Amino acid sequence: MASLHFPVLEPNLQVSFYYKLRTIRRLHLREALGGTVKRLDVRCIDAALSRYVGADAIAHVAQFGIRGEVVFAVPMVLAANPFLLGYYRLLLGFSQKEFYQKGPFGRFKGLEEQGHIPDRLADDLEALCRSLIGSAETLVDGLERISTDIVCQLQLLTLGAQFRGSENNRIGQQAATDVRALIESIAGSYVRQTTRRTIVLQNESNRRVLIEFSADPDVCVTEQLATDVRPTLSIEIKGGADASNIHNRLGEAEKSHLKARSRGFREFWTIIGVDLDDDAARRASPTTGLFFNLARILDSTTSDYARFRDRICALMGVQSST
After folding, report:
1. Which distant-in-sequence residues (6+ apart) come within 8 Å of 158 by Cβ?
2. By three-state DSSP, how is residue 215 classified?
3. Per residue in 63-99, pLDDT tens?
4. In a shared domain, residues 74 and 35
5. What is the H or E stretch that residue 6 is in?
6. Residues 226, 114 share a domain
């Protein structure tokens, strides 16, 4: 059988230290590694390090009094405590999404989450460690000095980015929930059925209108005609309040709207969580026909709410109940 190889990833050091880390009292990664090593024969670990890690990399960390397994993932240590895959992933600067969803490493996610190596992956462990070691060799080569504190700080930097990713997901989910509740309240008595992802209306022309909540786009409205389904409206929701990243989020909205256009949609709206001049917003998403501010359309006393209500009622073919 041919030996298995995984790519050696470039360590990701372009991450930011976010405010949520202030709430962290203690990170137990160092203790987890120390406890694992304590149960093993250090002479065997040294032999594994000599086998898998380049002599220059071992010498570089050793000059600062750091044992090799603090930086380099050898199979016997990872086999003794599969949870430690998270230790090495964080050290190399990869969020869970980057590591497990964008490459061939998704099969190993259970090691970090469940602390277990399935029989089907046992033979792949060496190839995984060689990949991690190659990345770690690149990392230490770029560091003038290294210590256990520096290792911990690098892990915290990655964890901060991971927290921000989770927070962005939470904000996005909440914004989608709020928009769904808004549309449902506007539709009122026209609603005939709801599921976790859909709202079904019967409009003034006795036609079925389907509102779907998913992705690409976040919301799409279609109308059932006598012989066909008419794509009516594509809505993208970018509810984050971080103005510094709004142009990137509008770029994502533009890509989604272009996909919707290829499916026959002709109306495109984008809901954002920050104040932005329409001209600037349209440069980032020229396909968007209307931009709405999330907070203002959720406030029924504003003109933005009235504008959103009137427009969506017209497209759905209903009269507002609010």
Report:
1. 12, 15, 89, 90, 91, 92, 93, 94, 95
2. coil
3. 988 899 999 999 999 999 999 998 888 888 887 877 8
4. yes
5. none
6. no
Calculate the alpha carbon distances from 280 to 13, 235, 247 in Å: 31, 19, 9
Q: Cα 8–165–169 angle (5° rounding)? A: 135
Domain residues for 132?
19-146
Q: What is the pLDDT at residue 157?
A: 63
- Do residues 249 and 240 lie in contact, with contact meaning Cβ atoms separated by under 8 Å? yes
Question: Which CATH number fits the domain that encloses residue 190?
Answer: 3.40.91
Which residue is associated with the tokens 């190596």?
A: 117
Q: Strand 290-293 to strand 267-272: parallel, antiparallel, or no bridges (unpaired)?
A: parallel
Instruction: Determine if residue 179 is left, alpha or beta; phi over 0 gives left, psi from -120 to 50 gives alpha, anything else beta.
Output: alpha
Residue 107 located in a structural domain: yes
Distance CA 182, CA 235 (A): 13
Tell if the pTM clears 0.70, that is, is over it.
no
Establish if 181 belongs to a structural domain. Answer: yes
The residue written with tokens 């809505």 in the block is 235
Q: Do residues 318 and 183 make contact, with C-beta atoms less than 8 angstroms apart?
A: no
